[in-house]
């Protein structure tokens, strides 16, 4: 089966460029039929190299992503990257997201590059917006002072109608805490970006087969991101998941969750 990758990026950073071509080429090379991407240029405090913000607001940056998306409608979808450190939920932002709701697959929040915790009070207006528009929120989770899975647990409890995707299942951890949080909060899902397949199997076994998506961070680690042995294990189903579970992980869960064409 051809996979769906729910976690990709475009950017114009010196250390991360030509990303649109890299995304499309790697999709072809690795049998991925659809990728959901966000635009890293929206990062308020970029964490890689010496990149600096471009001085554009979130709407202007999303327009660039939308152009890529519209040029490849059967292959690319996009998240709207929110910027809680510098921007509030203004009427302009609400109107833009509402008017483009059919083209926006979710909100993307990267607490580390915003220097805003997942459960910071400034985020509540974004979560209320997500609830109103029926948008999921893809949240970077990691072992840092802004991105702890425990902060996401707090938010998921306060906003039970919002569906959250814990990107990376808490990066740089053993993922155990993240799995326990998923058990406690049915509105928290996860992706496999930099998560080994044995851990993905554990999520399926302990949390359920419907709440995990294949995601890669492509091409954050360069044009060869999808050739990484970690992702090769997914393409080969090295842990031997049953056919139904494997197909759900690699695409069918995303089809249902994001209402993607089959």
Q: What does this molecule look like?
A:
This protein is an alpha/beta fold and 262 residues long. It has 10 helices and 8 strands. The chain has helices spanning 19-30, 58-71, 91-99, 111-114, 124-133, 149-158, 176-184, 197-206, 229-235, 243-258, and strands at 3-10, 32-39, 76-81, 104-109, 137-142, 164-171, 188-191, 212-213. Strands 1-2-3-4-5-6-7-8 form an 8-stranded parallel beta sheet. Helix 7 links the parallel strand 6 (164-171) and strand 7 (188-191). It is globular. The model has no long low-confidence stretch (mean pLDDT 95).
Poorly predicted parts: none
Q: Kindly estimate the percentage of residues that lie in beta strands according to DSSP.
A: 15-25%
Largest sheet entry: 8 strands, parallel
Measured on Cα atoms, how large is the radius of gyration?
A: 17 Å
> What helical percentage do the residues reach?
25-40%
Determine the mean pLDDT: 95
Q: SSE order, as H and E?
A: EHEHEHEHHEHEHEHEHH
Main-sheet strand order equals 1-2-3-4-5-6-7-8
* Span between termini: 11 Å
In terms of quaternary structure, the protein is single chain
Shape: globular
Number of strands: 8
Count of runs of 4 or more consecutive helical residues:
10
Coarse structural class: alpha/beta
